[in-house]
């Protein structure tokens, strides 16, 4: 696949790297301004069940969940009971049980057309079913180590998956054939995604020792490789060894925001391998990075209990959204300025990133939330928890 040159829509390439390290007084002021938003400020935690539906067949922690991009009622989930389920979020009924794994199912996902579903497990298997013909089993691929993540191409029937040994696998459907195995990482591949969003000309992957690789998915060639050998790109510091845990890219796919296990966020232009900024506001692992499609805002969710908002154009700190415990995920509702955050305090929250206002809290889980997925129409969010339950919340209000 030939790669087009995209202009840098964020910063001129001649600009130098900027380090954003928010002043402590500014952070204290920001938290004071948002203190009324902190659900734990009064030491009270609501356990009111505000869910509109639930699924209760899993017998162990629910590690992953994904909504069908076309059939908005269908959801797939995977858990520590070695099983995955397809179920209906409108009535909570089981549609299909997906079996065959010998260890925890820790990643699941649908193809862009909603006709295929894949599961990845700690047993090293990638298993795929065709869902438009009675849930026909297609293939089981034995990789060389635990499957950490999987992601479907946004326009084609190609599936990529990353493993704990650093290998990255790509399969083609409906044949189930392994068309590429990428070897370039020397540590667990923590995240991967086809970029740009909606186009998927390249495959970006990051690992546990601070390496970013951008691949040509057609040829397997490396188009960009950045490592911690360049101290400016190192996600850790002299005392702490760290890796990349999460990332997102702009619509052109030339600028990436990478979250690190030490709390750093690096902004890079992958067309010329330049570092545009180092955002150093958070202090613990950044578990999720999400770019807003309607505003120049980037949200970074951290184990330190904050979600930090940056201007994705100027790369300036905007504000911090306080949470009582670790934030494990964040995602924008489609075509909106509204951000959902999933927290270990058993609560999903809805925020208006323009003002930082807390618009809603969705409770019902009894143990930490481990995953969430938003419906394609943005009307519902589904969350999975250590309590073995999946709950559906109406996030329209």
TrEMBL record:
InterPro entries per UniProt: WD40/YVTN_repeat-like_dom_sf, WD40_repeat_CS, WD40_repeat_dom_sf, WD40_rpt, WD_repeat_multifunction
* GO CC terms: cytoplasm
Report the Pfam families cross-referenced here. WD40
- Extract the Gene3D superfamilies matched here: YVTN repeat-like/Quinoprotein amine dehydrogenase (2.130.10.10)
- The residues bearing each WD repeat, given as ranges, are 55-97, 98-139, 320-361, 362-397
User: Where's it found, cell-wise?
Assistant: Cytoplasm
- Supply the alphabetized keyword list: Cytoplasm, Repeat, WD repeat
Question: Residue ranges of region Disordered?
Answer: 1-28
Q: Where is the composition biased (Acidic residues)?
A: 14-28
| Name under which the protein is recorded | Ribosome biogenesis protein Sqt1
């Amino acid at each position: 696949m030939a790669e087009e040159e995209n202009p840098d829509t964020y910063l001129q390439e001649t600009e130098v790297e900027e380090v954003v390290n928010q002043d402590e007084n500014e952070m204290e002021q920001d938290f004071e301004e948002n203190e009324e938003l902190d659900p734990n400020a009064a030491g009270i935690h609501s356990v009111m069940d505000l869910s509109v539906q639930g699924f209760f067949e899993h017998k162990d922690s629910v590690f992953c969940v994904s909504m069908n991009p076309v059939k908005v009622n269908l959801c797939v989930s995977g858990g520590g009971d070695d099983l995955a389920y397809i179920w209906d979020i409108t009535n909570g009924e089981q549609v299909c049980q997906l079996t065959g794994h010998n260890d925890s199912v820790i990643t699941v996902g649908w193809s862009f057309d909603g006709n295929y579903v894949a599961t990845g497990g700690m047993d090293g298997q990638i298993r795929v079913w065709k869902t438009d013909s009675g849930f026909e089993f297609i293939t089981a691929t034995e990789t060389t180590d635990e499957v950490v993540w999987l992601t479907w191409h946004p326009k084609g029937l190609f599936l990529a998956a990353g493993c704990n040994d650093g290998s990255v696998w790509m399969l083609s459907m409906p044949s189930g054939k392994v068309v590429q195995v990428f070897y370039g990482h020397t540590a667990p591949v923590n995240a991967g995604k086809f970029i740009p969003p909606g186009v998927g000309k390249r495959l970006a992957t990051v690992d546990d020792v601070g390496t970013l690789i951008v691949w040509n998915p057609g040829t397997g060639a490396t188009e960009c490789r950045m490592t911690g050998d360049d101290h400016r790109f190192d996600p850790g510091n002299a005392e702490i060894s760290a890796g990349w845990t999460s990332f997102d890219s702009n619509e052109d796919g030339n600028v990436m925001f990478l979250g690190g296990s030490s709390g750093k966020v690096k902004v890079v232009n992958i067309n010329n391998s330049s570092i545009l900024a180092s955002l150093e506001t958070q202090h613990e692992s950044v578990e999720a990075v999400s770019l807003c499609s309607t505003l120049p805002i980037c949200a970074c969710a951290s184990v330190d209990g904050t979600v930090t908002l940056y201007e994705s154009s100027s790369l300036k700190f905007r504000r911090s959204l306080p949470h009582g415990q670790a934030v494990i995920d964040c995602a924008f509702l489609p075509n909106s300025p509204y951000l959902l955050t999933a927290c270990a305090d058993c609560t999903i929250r809805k925020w208006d990133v323009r003002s930082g206002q807390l618009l809603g809290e969705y409770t019902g889980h009894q143990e930490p939330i481990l995953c969430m997925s938003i419906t394609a129409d943005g009307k519902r969010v589904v969350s999975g928890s250590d309590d073995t339950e999946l709950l559906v919340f109406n996030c329209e209000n």
